[in-house]
Design brief:
Helix content: 40-55%
Number of strands: 0
Number of helices: 3
Radius of gyration: 12 Å
Order of helices and strands: HHH
Distance between the termini: 26 Å
Shape: globular
Structural class: mainly alpha
């Protein structure tokens, strides 16, 4: 993983935690027990399964966030 990919992953992990970690957000939707490790595993599965990763250092995509959330929660989805 090169530097840009690591930065991209860190930005995405932070985005996921801001959205779903009950300690860091005020949203109605939280994922109990969400960890960096769970996010990393789900991102790897998403990237290995689907060729639609839209995130970049400049644009974190909510579609990616929702699809990675579904993987974490064991929800199947179709692209």
């Amino acid at each position: 993983m090169d530097l840009e990919e690591r930065i991209e992953l860190e930005v995405f992990i932070d985005y996921m935690l801001q959205c779903y970690d009950p300690k860091r957000n005020n949203w109605l939707y939280v994922i109990e027990g969400l960890t960096r490790e769970r996010i990393i595993k789900a991102v790897a599965e998403y990237k290995n399964t689907y060729d639609t990763w839209a995130s970049s250092v400049h644009c974190v995509d909510s579609v990616d966030r929702e699809r990675v959330r579904d993987i974490i929660e064991g929800v199947e989805f179709r692209i």
